[in-house]
Amino acid sequence: MTDSKFDICNQALVLVGANTINSFSENTTESKVCNQLYNMTLETMLTRCRWRFSTKQQQLSRKTDKPLGRFSSAYSLPSDALVMNTITVSDNVIQYDRYNDQIFCDATSTDVVIADYTFQPSEADFPPYFKSALVFELASLFSGAIARNDSLSLLYQRKAQGQLSIAKSQDSQAQTTRRADVDRFRNRRNSGSLGTVKAKVSS
User: Fold this and answer.
1) How big is the CA angle at 179 (ends 176 and 181), to the nearest 5 degrees?
2) Per the domain annotation, does 90 fall within a domain?
3) 49 neighbors 172 (Cβ within 8 angstroms)
């Protein structure tokens, strides 16, 4: 079963003993607080680190106007980009800078420029580990804004921080495991190419 943004808010509301909602337009304190805090809190959490589930690639569109200085070309920023992570050409990372809604770099007109960036996926695509951290983060905010309970707010803030650490660890596993090339060092050692270290004796 997938959760909507209202389901996520309701889980946090239940934790603080508040009433649940069906939309952000209801004439209730809970609805008004959720409407004010949900999107801001979600964007903050998505941009707190580079989550694998909210990272995507897109080929950038080259603009006709060139930068005034420092870089030779400009590209349109993806409309759904929250944070730019990497710009590559032919799988090689290149230097770039962001200016408003544009990316400046030194790519040529024939280069295929690919951006890796953070975006906001649908709530249905949130993995459980991130959803739990988001619920605790919202519960911490709702504890102060709705329940007016600072101790409860602190409790859920600690829970959010703990779950966030777990979420980062689990999310980092969503990629090929990197390991050292031990065979290369073993072969060099067996061939004697590593050499020996000589101690320097001072007179």
Assistant:
1) 125
2) yes
3) no
Domain coverage including residue 32: 5-50+122-171
Q: Mark whether 114 and 61 lie in a shared domain.
A: yes
Instruction: Tell me, yes or no, whether 186 lies in a domain.
Output: no
CA gyration radius for the chain? Answer: 24
* Residue-level pLDDT, tens digit, the chain, 203 residues: 589 999 999 999 999 999 999 999 999 999 999 999 999 999 999 999 999 999 999 999 999 999 999 999 999 999 999 999 999 999 999 999 999 999 999 999 999 999 999 999 999 999 999 999 999 999 999 999 999 999 999 999 999 999 999 999 999 987 765 554 445 545 545 555 444 444 444 44
Residue type, 113: V
Mapping DSSP to helix (H, G, I), strand (E, B) and coil, where does residue 78 land?
Answer: coil
Angle at 165 between CA 57 and CA 8, to 5 degrees: 75
